[in-house]
Write a structure and sequence with these properties.
The complex is a heterotrimer.
Chain A (H helix, E strand, L loop, with lengths): L3 H24 L7 H19 L1 H8 L3 H17 L30 H27 L1
Chain B lengths: L1 H19 L4 H22 L24 H32 L22
Chain C lengths: L1 H21 L4 H28 L2 E4 L10 E4 L1 H24 L2 H5 L2 H17 L3 H20 L4 H32 L4 H7 L6 H19 L7 H5 L5 H25 L5 H24 L4 H22 L2 H32 L10 H4 L1 H15 L5 H15 L3 H27 L15 H23 L1 H16 L2 H8 L6
Antiparallel strand pairs in C: 1-2
The chains are: A mainly alpha, B mainly alpha, C mainly alpha.
């Protein structure tokens, strides 16, 4: 299906959806949102792209295969859980660094393993959904 | 509210059983999707229904000040939905592939892995 | 630190799956998979040593205290199952180096394989009933992938039946979890063991128990829920069907053993009586089904069903001796059955088929292979001094102790019929001359393929011999496992702390 309106719209929608998906991912730390929803939105952006310009074009724009992306995400999520081994905590215990303070309230920047885990979930959902939808679309 | 949901679950199960008794694999799958929704509703209802209360705390609160919804069944249902979604997506691709290769989705005709024994009753 | 003993056998296959997937286009991916399985074996042996040393271990993931977080628990049964999973996994992955074509490896065979092993291990180790559901699904979805990988018509046909029935079973299980949670407000299995007896409406508990029995029964392939198994297990690659035959149904049996000794013990005279007759019917139908088949792997598939009956029988008796027999049978059967499927693969390569009427002459061509077949085959039938003899002996002894003469008679008769099936394979595939007049020979198989295929077959056969000739330490471990199952106090205190003891 070739449609000028959809193609032109996709050019606008795809970056917007991608940015919004990242926003959702980061917002999910304290508010509704998170890796799963972000990943769904991100996958949607590429699905729109694939509908407008074809799956081959979408795969080319993605550069790496969605399966690889999903597996890398699984690795990142696992890695986030494994950080706890260095502090002697149980698997998947949240690890925090308080930069510029000593607690969540005072720290100016608090990098933590939970966000890393969420990034992993984002990639798993993104890659998983996209690989299935692209496969289905190529079949039909 | 529980009674209404119970009836709905019953209805979903009845419809899904009807669909799953069909010979067509695709209808079977649709029945399965309804059955999975019924199972999710069972979990949701089992976690007690609270009307109009969120499952979240306000920012800065340590304990809920007012009535609060049970968040656990919601988390369980979400997990089950996500898993179910993945499984059904797979099953759908499988059905499509099977139709492509075998040429039918009539489960009575799908006997490649278990061909009829020579002595058995002939195909109708 | 304890929690890492529990987490390691679970994390290693996942890491391996990720690494093997990223390296799937090179030779390295295969070796990563082998190294991962070996590392998992080491981790599981460490866990086993720790459990034998300190008793039941429990670890809270993410430092969330039980019963709120997800708990990993290893009692003796779990630890034994994890070790045997690792052994099977290593054996099959080595075998796969000769048997799985590069084309399937590129499609992600090793990633799916390791993800499935992770799912199986997770199911054995988790102490949370909803988490058990999640592990079941991890295991299922990767097994779906493995079953249809390659996508021949037979595989797709088998996949449809396998997927359909297994999805129904997980939904029964899921609905059961929902109702159990509604009654008790808990998902932690140790806490459920304490709260389920306090539920007012015990009749509803029995109803939920039935939902669980159906859900796990499909997974375990017991009568009358086994139809997906003989429809599917003979279609994929031999590596895949060996690991399915060894491990997947046993996860169902393990889950039955867990919930029907820990949670649903309020109405034993009803639930376990059903299990008893289900077990008897499973043994008989399985072996009769096998007698009617003429394909190497189909015969073996039906024998899985009949042997599952013995394990469920051990559980149904609900005595120490019965459970010892059940646990011992579980371990013995995983080794022997995986081995028989692996041998079927070599026989197919050497003789050119699996249909018994089309092959033959294997004994003349490869007497060593014949010997390797006889060891697990006789063990399956229960000949002394192999592992199957002791397994059958204990189960039948336990049945007689309770005075179930008829069931004991059935168990022995099924043993005889098993010998009939095994001799049928022996006579057709090994003794009679090849019908097409060709000489089958192992030298027709590429050496680079044959060596990795033979190593695990020999290894598993040796393991069967060791268990058969020195059963004492294994029976002792099975006894500890059975004691812990019958008296779950240690399990509950390990998870919830001393003050929770009933």
């Amino acid at each position: 299906m070739k449609s000028i309106i959809l193609t032109a719209g996709a050019r606008l929608l795809v970056p917007l959806l991608l940015v919004f998906s990242i926003f959702m991912l980061l917002r999910g730390h304290n508010l509704p949102g998170g890796g799963f929803i972000g990943g769904l939105l991100g996958a949607t952006s590429f699905i729109v792209y694939a509908i407008a310009l074809g799956t081959a074009e979408a795969r080319r724009a993605l550069r790496v295969s969605p399966e690889t992306l999903g597996m890398v995400g699984l690795g990142i999520a696992l890695g986030a859980g494994l950080i706890a081994v260095f502090t002697g905590d149980a698997l998947f215990t949240g690890q925090w660094l308080w930069i510029g303070g000593d607690s969540y309230e005072t720290a100016s920047f608090a990098p933590n393993s939970i966000l890393v885990f969420d990034v992993g979930v984002y990639l798993v959902v993104f890659g998983g959904i996209l690989s299935m939808v692209l496969a289905l679309e190529e079949e039909l | 509210m529980e009674a209404v949901l119970s009836l709905l679950i019953g209805l979903l199960v009845a419809v899904s059983v009807y669909l799953m008794l069909a010979r067509n694999f695709l209808r079977f799958l649709f029945g399965l999707i309804l059955l999975s929704n019924a199972a999710n509703l069972v979990i949701f209802t089992a976690g007690r229904l609270t009307e109009g209360a969120p499952a979240l705390l306000r920012y800065g609160e340590d304990a809920p000040a007012t009535e609060i919804a049970n968040a656990l069944p919601q988390a369980l249902v979400l997990t089950a939905i996500v898993i179910g979604f993945g499984l059904f997506a797979f099953a759908l691709v499988l059905a499509l592939q099977a139709y492509r290769q075998i040429g039918t989705l009539d489960t009575d005709q799908m006997r490649l892995a278990e061909p009829r024994q020579p002595g058995a009753e002939a195909d109708k | 630190m304890t929690s890492w003993f529990l987490a390691a056998p679970l994390v290693i296959p996942f890491v391996t799956a990720v690494a093997a997937f990223l390296l799937r286009n090179s030779e390295t991916g295969r070796w990563v998979s082998v190294a991962g399985s070996a590392a998992m074996l080491v981790a599981s042996l460490l866990l086993m040593a720790e459990v034998l040393d300190k008793g039941v271990l429990a670890g809270q993931m993410g430092n969330w205290p039980a019963p709120f977080g997800i708990t990993l628990v290893a009692d003796t049964l779990s630890a034994v199952m994890v070790v045997i999973t690792a052994i099977t996994s290593l054996a099959v992955v080595i075998y796969g180096m000769g048997e799985v074509p590069v084309r399937l490896e590129r499609l992600g065979y090793h990633a799916l394989y390791n993800a499935m092993i992770a799912g199986v291990t997770g199911a054995f180790l988790t102490g949370d009933i909803f988490n058990l559901y999640v592990w079941f699904e991890v295991m299922l979805i990767s097994s779906f992938g493995l079953l249809v990988l390659g996508g021949t018509k037979e595989q797709l046909d088998a996949g449809v039946k396998y997927v359909a029935l297994n999805l129904v079973s997980t939904l029964a299980f899921l609905a059961g979890i929902g109702m159990l949670y509604g009654m008790t407000g808990s998902l932690n299995m140790a806490e459920l063991a304490l709260t389920v007896p306090q539920v007012e409406n015990q009749a509803l508990v029995t109803v939920v128990a039935m939902l669980f029995m159906v859900g796990f029964g499909v997974k375990a392939a017991v009568f009358p829920l086994f139809f997906w198994l003989p429809a599917a297990y003979h279609t994929p690659r031999f590596s895949v069907s060996a690991v399915f035959a060894g491990l997947l149904t046993k996860v169902g049996v393990y889950a039955l053993m867990r919930v029907f000794t820990l949670i649903f013990v309020g109405d034993v005279s009803f639930t376990h009586e059903i299990l008893l007759w289900v077990a008897a019917a499973t043994m008989v139908t399985g072996v009769l089904g096998a007698a009617a088949q003429t394909d190497f792997r189909k015969i073996l598939s039906f024998h899985i069903i009949s042997q599952i009956g013995y394990m469920v029988l051990g559980l149904a008796l609900y005595t120490t001796t019965g459970l010892v027999g059940g646990v011992f049978y579980l371990v013995h059967h995983i080794i022997v059955k995986a081995n028989l499927f692996l041998i079927a693969g070599i026989a197919q390569k050497a003789a050119g088929g699996n249909e018994l009427s089309r092959i033959g002459g294997l004994y003349k061509a490869a007497p060593f292979l014949g010997l390797l077949f006889l060891i697990p085959a006789f063990s399956l039938a229960g000949f002394p001094p192999l592992s199957g003899f002791w397994a059958k002996f204990v189960v039948v002894k336990a049945t007689l102790e309770l005075g179930h003469w008829f069931v004991a008679f059935l168990a022995l008769a099924v043993g005889l019929l098993t010998i009939f099936s095994m001799t049928k394979i022996w006579a057709a595939a090994f003794w009679k001359p090849h019908p097409d007049g060709i000489e089958p020979s192992l030298s027709r198989v590429d050496r680079g393929e044959l060596v990795p295929m033979m190593i695990p077959v020999v290894g598993l056969a040796v393991l069967t011999m060791i268990i058969g000739l020195h059963p004492e330490p294994f029976v002792q471990i099975a006894e500890t496992a059975a004691d812990q199952l019958l008296d779950p106090t240690a399990y509950i205190t390990a998870v919830l702390g001393e003050e929770a003891a009933p």
